[in-house]
Design a protein that fits this description.
twelve-stranded mixed beta sheet; alpha+beta; three-stranded mixed beta sheet; disordered C terminus; globular
Length: 343
């Protein structure tokens, strides 16, 4: 098998094992032995950043020119068919090594980082970017990678390889949503659905639409996610997968899942010409509170109003978000429905 040649260690890391130390060793190895990774991680020290304050939260903007490959990636079928899959083991750079996880995934160091510790986690099998049957794998990774937030970009939601299923992960403490979450949950939650196994919050006053699931119960989380997924799928029957981005991590023995439902791949500014163009293709990191601008001119000129407008364009519209909420409310699993009015 081709992937075996890429393994730094021969063992397979399973769900219950703590993989953080092995990942640390992998990162050290790659920064020492892979010049491209070393150069780009060192380059993070000179990354430029701005911050915009909103009502109780912030959005950071990062100028990161190496991310142009992702932000401007051509993801149409013709372009994909004309290139080799850069996530397949056979096409990985010679220097790139990884860890085998659950006999189904490779944990790799992302050579074009946003985070100080940035991982790409492709499936061993070449198959489309569709989360429905692999959401449980996201929970497994969140359980194994205690120091990381796991994220998923849908095929039309920022994934630069929609033809090969993969997750990414970044070190905790980087995304503003992590530190803002409890405050946002208290001040901006419109509705909360509670059951004995966990709770769901619906937040539509956070520039983007957000659904959170909190629970220690993987079965509860999976069933809840499936209900949300199927409702969203009904909104967009023409799509292979409903448009969404997902963050997942563990905190105090509970999983925190943050789902950002969408209605559009890229904003109008992406396709505009001249001064009106902003080459921004929002993905999970952007929805988590860090806008990535690969061009300096976009970093310099983007405004708070631009960010608001971009989120308004790509996030699920208010009516459908309310319909999704009502559908979840109707499920018998939730024995306590709390409605909170925003003043």
């Amino acid at each position: 098998m081709e992937f075996q040649e890429k393994l730094l260690f021969n063992n397979n890391f399973e769900t219950k094992s703590n993989v953080d130390e092995a990942v640390h060793q992998l990162l050290l190895h790659q920064l020492e032995n892979w010049e491209l990774a070393k150069k780009n991680y060192t380059g993070l020290n000179s990354i430029l950043e701005r911050s915009f304050k909103y009502d109780g939260f912030e959005i950071k903007v990062q100028f990161n020119p190496e991310r142009i490959r992702s932000s401007a990636a051509k993801v149409d079928q013709k372009s994909i068919s004309e290139r080799k899959c850069f996530l397949c083991s056979a096409h990985l750079p010679i220097e790139q090594k990884g860890l085998l996880y659950n006999n189904r995934f490779l944990i790799l160091v992302n050579p074009f980082p946003i985070f100080s510790r940035h991982l790409t986690i492709p499936a061993l099998q070449h198959r489309p970017q569709q989360i429905e049957s692999d959401f449980i794998s996201m929970l497994d990774l969140a359980e194994s990678l205690n120091d990381y937030a796991i994220f998923y970009n849908g095929p039309k939601c920022g994934a630069s390889a929609p033809d090969h299923f993969h997750f990414q992960a970044g070190n905790k403490g980087f995304l503003p949503i992590e530190s803002e979450f409890k405050r946002i949950q208290s001040n901006k939650t419109n509705h909360t659905l509670k059951s004995k196994n966990g709770q769901i919050c619906f937040i539509n006053d956070y520039l983007r639409k957000l659904i959170t699931i909190e629970s220690a119960d993987k079965v509860y989380i999976s069933e809840t996610f499936n209900s949300i997924y199927n409702t969203l799928k009904g909104f967009f029957p023409q799509e292979d997968e409903p448009l969404l981005n997902i963050l997942a991590y563990k905190e105090n023995e509970k999983f925190i899942i943050q789902i950002f439902p969408r209605q559009k791949h890229r904003p109008d500014q992406f396709y505009a010409e001249g001064e009106k163009q902003l080459l921004i293709s929002p993905a999970s990191v952007d929805f988590g509170g860090v806008f990535i601008t690969p061009r300096k001119e976009d970093f310099d000129k983007i405004t708070a109003n631009d960010i608001t407008d971009i989120f308004n364009q790509v996030s699920l519209d208010t009516n459908r978000f309310a319909e999704l909420e009502q559908n979840m409310q109707s499920l018998k699993d939730f024995n306590n429905y709390n409605k909170k009015s925003i003043i």
